[in-house]
């Protein structure tokens, strides 16, 4: 009898350890969900800024090329970006509370400074900035922004929720689809210029081929995760249409065979469809974050008859 006591005591300790581990894991999941919801809101605001910044790139490039009709929309996008800067600063402040922040307040302040520097450069831009330089400056700023979005998505949503969220959904939302939108955004800016000029320069030709191939790769990866949802299928149709137009209308011959207006509209439709897909992914993540037993029970108690 006495020899059985140590084994029994060891079993009790083992069971107690397992119970404590389960309680700690449950506590971590409960503590993670509000932080992940906060990160989702931060990413959504930065994705709104991404869309406005991409549009500002295209509109300001058209304005620099001599089309004054772009000015009102360019200034409207500029006001949108300015209005979203506080959300970036708040996200940086939240990140500063973490042991390993995805980016710091200084990073966000530098981003804001470079944005103002970009805008100030456009004030006298007809003398100082070429359309190509403008595209490059915007693209560097966009790369910084997409890096922030991807970092928050991975560190605050994807990795902590690996066992609770649909596989790959957070990566689609914060990395693949923003990256896809940027490939399409660059293709819109470069291709519109080529269509307007009537020919595609060698450097632009190589860049467009790369962007189309990269967009198609990201699209395939995202579709595999998405599982054939309507928003993903719609985006695929628009991206396929744009890819065909690039290959047949811009790259097939020595002269382009599509008007700048039609090309710009086709590219914009593709980009808009990707942002619609991003929004659908955000909605799915939000539902997954609140869809646990306790929330469902609470909702059930107040469901109207």
Plain-language structure description:
This protein is globular. α1 packs antiparallel against α2, α1 packs parallel to α6 and α7 runs antiparallel to α8. It has 305 residues and is an all-alpha fold. The C terminus is likely disordered. The protein starts with a helix and ends with a helix. It has 10 helices and no strands.
- Strand fraction equals under 5%
Number of strands: 0
Which overall shape is indicated by the principal axes computed on the Cα atoms?
Answer: globular
Evaluate the radius of gyration: 24 Å
Instruction: Determine the mean pLDDT.
Output: 84
Question: Which residues form runs of ≥5 with pLDDT under 50?
Answer: 293-305
Class derived from helix and strand content? mainly alpha
DSSP helical segment count:
10
Question: Termini, distance in Å?
Answer: 61 Å
Largest sheet: none
N-to-C SSE series? HHHHHHHHHH
Tell me the helix content.
Answer: over 70%
Outline:
The chain has 305 residues and is mainly alpha-helical. The protein has 10 helices and no strands. The radius of gyration is 24 Å and the shape is globular.
